[in-house]
Amino acid sequence: MTAQIPKPQAFVRELLGRSDYAIIGEIVEPGTKVLDLGCGDGDLLQWLAENKGVDARGVEIASAKVQRAIARGVSVYQGDIDEGLADYPDGAFDYIILSQTLQETHHPQKVLREMLRVGRRAIVAFPNFGHWRMRVALLLGGRAPITTLFPHSWYDSPNIHILTVQDFEELVELEGIRVERRYFLSGGRKVNLRPNLLAETAVYLVSGATL
Amino acid sequence: MIVESNVVRFDCMPLDNGATLAPVETAYETYGELNARKSNAILILHAFSGDAHAAGISHETGKPGWWDNMVGPGKAFDTNRYFVICANVLGGCRGSTGPSSVNPATGCPYAMTFPVITIGDMVRLQKMLIDWFGIERLLSVSGGSMGGMQALEWAVSYPDRVKSAIPIACTTRHSAQQIAFNEVGRQAIMADPDWSGGNYYAQRPPARGLAVARMVGHITYMSDDSMREKFGRRLRGKENFGYAFDVDFEVESYLRYRGSEFVNRFDANSYLYITKAMDYFDLVNGHGSLAAAFEAARARFLVISFSSDWLYPSYQSQEIVRALRARNCDVAYVELQSNYGHDAFLVDVAEQTDLIRGFLASTYEKAQ
């Protein structure tokens, strides 16, 4: 019996050219307080501030991106995600966003815990290393895969903690973190079946066990 | 833009050391127009040797203001949009009451009988000026170095009177190194026989001491890179060493020029009083921690530091940012790359301009 290839789902509306942003833009409730870790030049934060009346803050390590963010009026500070959360009081934000950055942190587990200490909820979007293209590239190529999702050579990749959907599921269970919503995306479409194999990007809305 | 300084006189003001100063005057300049709601006012705070003349061409001296590249039509502090005020600090010698002012009780200059003042006192006088303007709430307070300290003091002491603060290249308290450089400057002045215990106003001022103090200051304002670039080991007007102790190197010539020029525009006793106020400044004092000090702060903050500033290193700005984060205050921060050392906030303004323009615009929009 051959595995049935699932029918592609409807396209996800893009936000600022990204479908994970569209999901995040959907999740975030109006008038809330949001911290975006690794916010780049603050485009998502600016959108959230203008369209959802969000109190938007960000952290970014690259000076040029921080400058662009501040110049567009977003409150971003230059700093390291791995240490940047430590100063905040508990529950300082409604949402902490970590978009396409978890795999770049030195201590993802600690970052996740800190996110749920400082934020009531966390939104984590990450590229799925379990996607079939990655598996095929490794299996047939025998080298660290280079794909559109992971475009870097192993030696200059910022992705130091690559993970799959399954890996993330196991981590949140281990940590006693509650998954409120999960979204899987591939080529701008929602993926409902076998996300570990078919999703390019995963977006999770999670909260601490106590919530 | 030709500008004139004005002076406001107040009957008296209390000081942190318990004394009262009566009367007290503050010199100020303004640029742009105050709107009907008085919601577009920005107070610019000058650094140690600055004055009220921040922008435009002085009617009196014909010289541009010390932050003319930042304040004016279309500039970072856009005077087409905002009403910008800058006042000479208490203890200064450029129109505001200071040790060179005449003590009405004696008819002589205060000299060393002038009370020891603090950054808090300077800010209190500025607040009296803002009250005098009838401005309920400033859109922003901003300055570099000592100006940044005043911006922080404003945000902590008068939290309901400032919507935003932009402290640049500054600290919440001087380190031992910063106090040390100030002490060298003070000792240079006081070691000059012409200082005469501060009573030199009727005679020759301590020009040599003040010039040496300024030379030390200038070294701390530059960086190793900027000095190498500007002077290197180039000789001044000669091919070979003079084998004497007149000027050989360009850098010597520059420092001597800066020192002697400073003597013409600055009072040695003001140097003593203002550097002391900077050394005393300690936002943590009386609060236990910096985060506790910021408890009352309500302003949005934009904190800026410069990579080559070794006098006010970035770690000091980062301490401010961390404390503000601990209070969950709205804070933006970036370390700008520059070779100009501490002087960067005065001279390397392109990137600083983009940051401040965007920050002010969003603060102004939120406030409307």
Please characterize this protein's 3D structure:
The complex is a heterodimer of chains A (211) and B (368). Chain A has 211 residues and is α/β, with parallel strands linked by helices. Chain A is built from eight helices and eight strands; from the N terminus they run αβαβαβαβαβααββαβ. Chain A has an eight-stranded mixed β-sheet, with helices on both faces. In chain A, α5 (108-118) links the parallel β4 (93-99) and β5 (119-127). The longest helix of chain A is centred in the middle third of the chain and has 11 residues, at 108-118. The N and C termini of chain A lie far apart (44 Å). The mean pLDDT of chain A is 91. With 368 residues, chain B is of the alpha/beta class. Helix content of chain B is 35%, strand content 17%. Chain B has helices spanning 119-133, 146-157, 176-190, 207-221, 224-230, 250-263, 268-280, 290-293, 314-326, 344-347, 350-367; strands at 2-3, 6-10, 13-14, 20-21, 24-31, 41-45, 57-58, 71-72, 77-78, 83-87, 102-103, 108-109, 140-144, 164-168, 300-306, 331-336. Chain B has an eight-stranded mixed β-sheet, sandwiched between helices. In chain B, strands 1-7 form a two-stranded parallel sheet. A two-stranded antiparallel sheet of chain B has the order 3-4. The radius of gyration of chain B is 20 Å and the shape is globular. The two termini of chain B are 28 Å apart. Classes of the chains: A alpha/beta (211), B alpha/beta (368).
